[in-house]
Amino acid sequence: MSVAKAEAGKTRIGWIGTGVMGRWMCQHAMAKGFAATVFTRTKEKAQPLLDLGAAYADSPKAVAERSDVIFAIVGYPKDVREVFLGTDGALAGSKPGTILVDMTTSEPSLAVEIAATAKKKGVHALDAPVSGGDVGAKNAALSIMIGGEKDVVDAVAPLFEAMGKTVIHQGGSGAGQHTKMVNQILISSTMVAMCEGLLYAFKSGLDLETVLKSVSVGAAGSKSLDIYGARLLQRNFEPGFYVEHFIKDMGIALAEAEKMNLFLPGLALAKQLYEAVRAQGMGRKGTQSLLLAMEAISGVKR
Amino acid sequence: MSVAKAEAGKTRIGWIGTGVMGRWMCQHAMAKGFAATVFTRTKEKAQPLLDLGAAYADSPKAVAERSDVIFAIVGYPKDVREVFLGTDGALAGSKPGTILVDMTTSEPSLAVEIAATAKKKGVHALDAPVSGGDVGAKNAALSIMIGGEKDVVDAVAPLFEAMGKTVIHQGGSGAGQHTKMVNQILISSTMVAMCEGLLYAFKSGLDLETVLKSVSVGAAGSKSLDIYGARLLQRNFEPGFYVEHFIKDMGIALAEAEKMNLFLPGLALAKQLYEAVRAQGMGRKGTQSLLLAMEAISGVKR
Known about the structure:
The structure is a homodimer.
Chain A: E1 13-16, H1 22-31, E2 36-39, H2 47-51, E3 55-56, H3 60-65, E4 69-72, H4 77-85, E5 99-102, H5 108-119, E6 124-127, E7 130-131, H6 133-138, E8 142-147, H7 150-163, E9 164-171, H8 175-203, H9 208-215, H10 223-233, H11 243-259, H12 265-279, H13 290-297
Parallel strand pairs in A: 1-2, 1-4, 2-3, 4-5, 5-6, 8-9
Antiparallel strand pairs in A: 7-8
């Protein structure tokens, strides 16, 4: 099978979900000369893209009818299922040769199901979740982890490269999602490490800023500490990444681990701690809010 | 109080414990022109330093009798207590104005006790544990975290700067040890994160090297992954840092946390997992052996 490479000025893209991530990702593709049709649940969120010349369609199906490659980045696996496989979903509007790309962090098994269902119609599908957050999306610096057939990945490469700096084909359908799960597993216990370290530092009477100078340079360093250390010193808990989305990701990873008969106690603990963060009303705060929840549990007043 | 700054060719240093770390640290000080007298439990381990012109003394007390600043880097808190406060310890051989520096990772409360006991004799004491491992020691690139009085820290600065790249005064007695505990708390759950991530990656059928390319660049990155990722791909479990020493450090941190009434479940879990590593006979392997223990628990065969 050979799939035509996406080409600016020729390949028409569709975009479903123009939130804090999707809006920038679509914009970067448009900046490379790809015409876009967009759909999003809250139409006002699409306005910046419409202002740049994107067309609007009333459903994922309608997007697909006017597009060659359709991307989605939405919230939860149920949303992914609906926008791809639903009655008004993108697959319903696809013709043979269309390519569907899910960039949501979602279930590996759903990625496999979408690809298999699409294949029956001669439609291709990739799973391509990303890491890098809103800042990575804005700066076209995302890490994109891709599952699917190699020639389809190659065909979409010019579009991925418009959005990300690290574009890597990880294997067959679901491999992108599995890689993203690895990413989230790594982050989960590292966030626990960071919050426990800062909590101990505060309670033992150390100066947090001075401590960070000592510990961030050596073996204890992490991207979490780089990203959130300074924000936590300023007591800034605003979202870069929502607690409730992180809980969703960890839930998927734990469910996959259970299917694979894998013992991941650090992940299970991290998810439980984040349940406490959400229970304390911080589901829509940033993931660094774990520190606040753990301070509350230990009765630490700041 | 003013304390004379250490000066090459004039200030005589003493060194207790010339193992994988201490040997290099003492050598770097000698290379700056400081004459050294050393003591170590296994005399052969001191030979490289004796070959470079160091004198040997038969006890920490005898070391102190011939030195102005006495460093120790030994194994456990009980060893620290013995070499500083024992009948044949360094304090017994110290005169007023002598400076004692413990660079072992040890108990914050013991650091406070040594400093208070020393003070009664007009002797100064610092706690100055390090991060960076044998490689950091060899390359004089350690992070040195110091607790004690500022003028004493300033007096010893030329010696610290011979051994380390990041030399930071963290506060009064015990603050160096508390900072090192923060460092070890950060590492503990980050190691759990890394091993769980790699275990998931392997079990889900991904190619580990390709996965690392995607996840090490973004928010999931850590120094642990930088240091151990490649070694784990090669199934290299040789020690950079011993499991049994890490267990000691986590034990100290947990005991301090309990005294402070602090909830640190990630640290507690990490220590338990490392107990499993030791129970599986890997106490003298490197801390990356956690992966092996977790593979065994999940019945993963490599």
